[in-house]
# Entry
Amino acid sequence: MGISIRDQMARRAAAEIKEGMVVNLGIGIPSLVPNHLPSEINVMFHAENGIVGMGPSPEHGQEDENLCNAGGYPVSLVSGGSYCDSVIAFGMIRRGIVDITILGALQVSEKGDLANWIVPGKKIPGMGGAMELAQKAKKVIVLMNHTDKAGNSKIVKECSFPLTSRACVDMIITDMAVFHVTDKGLVLSEVFKPYTLEQVRESTDCTFLCK
Amino acid sequence: MKNQFNKITTVEKVLDLFHDGGTIMFGGFGGVGSPPSIIEGMVNKGIKDLTLIGNDTGFPHIGIGRLVANGRVKKVIASHIGSNPVAGQLMTEGILEVEFSPQGTLVERIRAGGVGIPAFLTDIGMDSEFVSTNKEKVVIKGKSYLLETALSAPISIVYAKKADEYGNLIYDKSARNTNPLVAMAGDITIAEVEEIVEVGELHPDEIVTPGVFVNYIVPTEGVNWKWVWE
# Structure
């Protein structure tokens, strides 16, 4: 996936972030989202390791080993930001204070089931904070490739990988298209250039409505 | 320093408390906020067959991950081992037992152990067999919850920015993370700190961990690993 496509996905996710929100970002493409926010917007980025108000990475040489994001990389703190312990950081998630979480996925089902923490027999990194975020953030946005390396759709009727959380995903942004999970099922709202609706259909392993 | 509470000691001395086959709870998140000098001491002393309780297994050369990568650990209770490929490999080979707990549940279990609560209820992980299997379910007002049990340990090791002689602790930015919880959950808690000051020097309002939870204070020699971003 080219840089421009990753940025296109991040930009689309950034458009969901509104003034005053508390937002938690996963690693990978979600970490590019802040680059696409307007400078005047007030957003507090939350990190599971105990930061509210996480700011951009410092300049090389200015890093502080005791100020890192949940992935272990140096960040900064915005004015009005605060530190807390891990219980408080997860208390914020569990009681629904995080407005949006933007994370990656292995599979998402048409009902919004999320599988993003284990590939049985292959990769078992552990769930980290994914279950709390998926279950309790007010809005869950998945940013992922539309298909896996073998070309299989990552949007499926039923997840074959173990679930992180059931019926939790609100929106899926892939390199091809944008979907919303609704009561009526999956709804396609946008198709990214250069793809066509037909190509999206061929690459998606479940039915969906078109907005 | 007067050392009037006899809590200030050295890494070498506290290492006498550690034994093969013991259980150690550790503070830190991806190595940030893990006590480097105590870990170094444990590695050098050859302590083995450990059970570790903490957020994650760090990186192979960072934090508690050094003990894992050196084959000193038989079991970990953690939320994540993904940043330490050696842990994954040892788990696959059946050498390392891993009990996963969702991160927020894990730290709440540690907090519970630290504040005298035997268990608590949560709906986190209800949709996951990995989390919910073999756990008691409790129905409150028609909704089902998992009963998650408290965690504590004979020894807790934490990292803090400053301690006074009594063991009152303050932390440094995101290196706080799990440390205040782990500090409460040890039968014996050892705080490795950047600076030790006399009682009265820390403002009572800024103290995060009251010294009642801290048994020993050891000065740190600082981080002796290279961070992933360096």
